[in-house]
Amino acid sequence: MHKKNIILNKILTRSFFLKNDFFLKIEDRNLFVKKEWVGFKLAVHNGKFFIPIVIKESMVGKLLGSLIFSKKILLKTKKKFRK
Prior knowledge:
The protein has helices at residues 3-12, 15-19, and strands spanning 24-26, 41-45, 50-54. By secondary structure, the chain is an alpha+beta fold. It has a single domain (3-67), classed as CATH 3.30.860.10. Strand 2 and strand 3 (50-54) form a beta hairpin. It is elongated.
């Protein structure tokens, strides 16, 4: 098992994490979401800042990086010309 996963599992199983209302910051986007993590609050780094998410049943088995966007969505608008 990977060293990061072992450390992360120890942190997520602590009882004080469930009692306190804070997000656990994670920079590794290549971790798979496990069934034991359902209901936990995580903040995943997208390259610029941390995006908070709450783990749900539908997210189990997916990568953390696929749950958040790393690029800003820009909508092209038509420029208005003044006469």
